[in-house]
Amino acid sequence: MSGAAFPKRYADAVARLRVPSGFLLVAAFAWLSRPSAASMAVGLPVSVLGLWLRGWAAGHLEKNMRLAESGPYAWVRNPLYLGTLLVAAGLVASSRRWELAIVFGVVFLFVYLPVIELEEQHLRRLFPEYEEYARRVPKLAPRRPREAPGGRFRWKVYRKNQEYQALIGFLAGAAWLVWRMVWG
Predict the structure, then answer these.
(1) How far from each other are the two terminal CA atoms of the chain, in whole angstroms?
(2) CATH of the domain at 37
(3) Is residue 3 in a domain?
(4) Which residues contact 55 (CB under 8 A, 6 or more apart)?
(5) Which domain covers residue 74, as residue numbers?
(6) Exposed (0-12), middle (13-18) or buried (19+): which is 87, by Cβ within 10 Å?
(7) In a domain, 2, yes or no
(8) C-alpha 66: how far from its chain's center?
């Protein structure tokens, strides 16, 4: 088993901060955003790419039932978090505020990375084959697989994982940006 990057007590503590930190990010985003048509033309496509990655991953993920190795999981171990990072980066670019980049970056480093570590520890306990998978597939920087395992996207799994909620959240953020650009 590989060594943990974060002490378990710390990772457990910050895992409880994930939802409250999300509210903090939304509040900071709503208050600070000063979008322009140009910033949204750059940022929103990055967010859409992140949503697409999250959706693709959700259609391959049967949580705690089998180790996801197909689809984006053949390229990167944590495509949902990578997708979240892309969505956030696109919204930050759209907002035109460097302060949001710092806030989002700090939350990702000190909240999301430890949560990823906890999830990987859980997967190592649940699936004996996870250790070999972790040696083969990078954590967050995608790499083309030598051989992609079989498996296909399934809408039923996507819906069960409720990934459409990320789309709803993104649409609310994009609508806020448009409102701020036009009337804010």
Answers:
(1) 52
(2) 1.20.120
(3) no
(4) 158, 163, 166, 167
(5) 8-183
(6) buried
(7) no
(8) 20
Residue 127 counted as domain residue = yes
Note whether 129 and 135 are within 8 A (CB). no
Helix axes 98-107, 79-95, angle to 10 degrees: 160
- The two structure tokens encoding residue 161: 């994982």
How many separate domains does the chain show? 1
90: three-class secondary structure by DSSP: helix
Contact call for residues 32 and 176 (beta carbons, < 8 A): no
Q: What is the pLDDT along the chain (184 residues), one digit of tens a residue?
A: 444 567 777 777 777 877 788 888 888 888 999 999 999 999 999 999 999 999 999 999 999 999 999 999 999 999 999 999 999 999 999 999 999 999 999 999 988 899 899 999 999 999 999 999 999 999 999 999 887 777 889 999 999 999 999 999 999 999 999 999 998 7
Q: Are the C-beta atoms of 25 and 106 separated by less than 8 Å?
A: no
Q: In terms of DSSP H, where are the helices of the chain?
A: 8-15, 18-32, 37-58, 79-95, 98-107, 113-126, 130-136, 155-160, 164-183
